[in-house]
TrEMBL record:
One of its GO terms (biological process) is regulation of DNA-templated transcription. Residues 172-237 form the HTH luxR-type domain. The keyword Transcription regulation applies. PROSITE patterns: HTH_LUXR_2 (PS50043). GO terms for molecular function: DNA binding. Pfam families: GAF, GerE. PANTHER family: DNA-BINDING TRANSCRIPTIONAL ACTIVATOR DEVR_DOSR. InterPro entries: GAF, GAF-like_dom_sf, Sig_transdc_resp-reg_C-effctor, Tscrpt_reg_LuxR_C, WH-like_DNA-bd_sf. This is Transcriptional regulator. The keyword Cell cycle does not apply. Keywords: DNA-binding, Transcription, Transcription regulation.
Length: 240
């Protein structure tokens, strides 16, 4: 039985936990959107670790994306800024997509992401997660119909996640995040994609100081990668 939009929406709506929500989504989303690679990422909340599910990709992709891809991903940047789904053709022409850093040094050449599409999961006015899709070589690009369907799915994912959280399914007391002005300044530079050396030059400090400060920020935010840090803080500089 083929997957339809109403079928996936019903599965999402009927989920009784975040894990079940992600499971139902992952079981059906790839077929619905004709994708060979797909995933869902829900940011950490109320002391709970973030949730990442991937299909069709090796575990190494998570490490690659957090260290390299996130800083180059203009589609994700669009989604973060506009809280709306996007595929590569919204940002690039076909030629400029193939020439982009994201395509050339990872997603396209290594992982065969010929076409990509990302959608937002939102709550309380901010991004609290994303869904991602990729089609491999020989498959058509995503189109307007795909974006319309993804908008619908993201709306239902956002609503269901908000309901689950309101029911305290994930609730534990959340400590206040307190970063110093210097730490916030450094986090903003990370969000711009600067390397440790570039941050050191910008702030007139040593690279070792940058490294130690980032470690301190990671501990405060309970994250292990730059992309997680940026997502956690939801820095508005990403949109500028």
């Amino acid at each position: 039985m083929s997957v339809t939009l109403p079928t996936l929406i019903q599965k999402v709506t009927n989920a009784s936990s975040v894990n079940q929500l992600c499971g139902h989504y992952m079981d059906a989303a790839g077929e619905l959107f004709g994708s060979q690679h797909w995933g869902i990422y829900i940011h950490d909340w109320a002391g709970q670790q973030g949730t990442i599910h991937l299909q069709g990709l090796p575990d190494s992709f998570i490490d690659y994306y957090s260290k390299v891809g996130a800083a180059l991903d203009k589609v994700m940047e669009y989604v973060v800024c506009h809280h709306a789904p996007a595929h590569e053709q919204i940002i690039f022409t076909e030629a400029t997509w193939k020439q982009s850093e994201l395509y050339q040094i990872g997603c396209g050449k290594i992982y065969d992401h010929e076409h990509i599409m990302t959608g937002p999961i939102v709550g309380e006015g901010r991004l609290i997660g994303t869904v991602q899709f990729a089609r491999t070589s020989g498959n058509p690009a995503y189109n307007t119909q795909d974006l319309l369907q993804l908008s619908a799915i993201c709306a239902h994912l956002s609503a269901k996640l908000a309901l689950l959280r309101s029911q305290h399914e994930l609730f534990v007391p959340k400590p206040k995040i307190s970063l110093t002005p210097r730490e916030l300044q450094m986090a903003a530079l990370v969000a711009k994609g600067l390397t440790n050396a570039e941050i050191a030059a910008e702030l007139w400090i040593s690279q070792n100081t940058v490294k130690q400060t980032l470690k301190r920020i990671f501990r405060k935010l309970d994250v292990s990668a730059r992309a997680e840090m940026v997502a956690r803080l939801q820095l508005s500089r990403v949109c500028h």
